[in-house]
Design brief:
The structure is a single chain. By secondary structure, the protein is an alpha+beta fold. The protein has a single domain (about 5-90), classed as Gyrase A, domain 2 (2-Layer Sandwich), CATH 3.30.1360.20. It is built from three helices and four strands. The chain has a four-stranded antiparallel β-sheet with strand order 1-2-4-3. Helix 2 (about 35-50) packs across helix 3 (about 80-90). The longest helix has 18 residues, at about 35-50.
């Protein structure tokens, strides 16, 4: 799978302004009322990721969750990551 160039990534991010590029990954942060809500959110992400066959990196810090998308096997951001970004945005926003 081909890695997207910077212009392609910038275009996708412009269409999805809640996401940003950080350390070569598409990243978005969420904040919840408490740990229980954060974990419930992560469980929703897990179901979507399993269905798509593409899994984000997930960081949990009490009531904060960070999702990061990158195609490790391709060595960068691919169309698969941008599709998952849109899928997560539509399902979880």
């Amino acid at each position: 799978m081909a890695i997207l160039n910077q212009a392609e990534i910038d275009s996708r991010l412009k269409e999805n302004p809640d996401w940003k590029l950080d350390s070569g990954k598409l990243v978005r942060d969420w904040t919840f009322k408490d740990f229980v809500q954060a974990i419930a959110f992560v469980n929703q992400v897990a179901e979507l990721a399993e269905a798509a066959g593409h899994h984000p990196d997930i960081e949990i810090r009490y009531n904060r969750v960070r999702l990061a998308l990158v195609s490790h096997d391709a060595g960068g951001i691919t169309i698969r990551d941008t599709k998952m970004m849109v899928r997560l945005t539509e399902a979880l926003s």
